[in-house]
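User: quick one, fold this
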Amino acid sequence: MFAQAFGDLDRVGTKTLGNLTSMMKNFYEASKNDLDPTQLREVVRIIQNLEEQSWERSPFAAIKEGINDILTGTREVQAAEANLAAARAAQAEVEKRNASEIAILRLQMSQAGTDEERATILQRINDLERQNRDAVKNTQQAVEDLAAAEYKVQTGFTKTKAALNKMDAYLGNLSSDIGKIGGTL
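Assistant:
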């Protein structure tokens, strides 16, 4: 698989190219948490190269996919932005509410008479801090979702542009060839 992905893609069939792209995307998804950033960038570069080759071979399909990615990605960006705003607001509310309660609980802990009272108070503090961490995780997930949606839109534009450039070059060559034929008649 990797030998083909790193090799001369002009010698690879279109169907094989699609299979390679799918396999590399699956590899990326399965390995993204295990690879270091340099390795991840290399895998992404390979996937982009495979996709660009595919777009050049099927420009009409690439334009259709690109426009679809732009449209669905734009809707996803809007939804992700709303989710992010809600997650940030929820995080701020949870942290604000919990901060005052944690401050009160710490004061109570300093005045607690028994170990059992301190343990109960400490457990409540831990629960509140866990709520804070969960709110932060929700916000981080919303940020990641927004980045993924924005990437989809960007990929749609890139795909559409590559396909249009390929078609422009093809039509330019075709026009030139027609002009040559007309000149010889």
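User: anything notable?
Assistant: Residues 1-5 have pLDDT under 50 and may be disordered.
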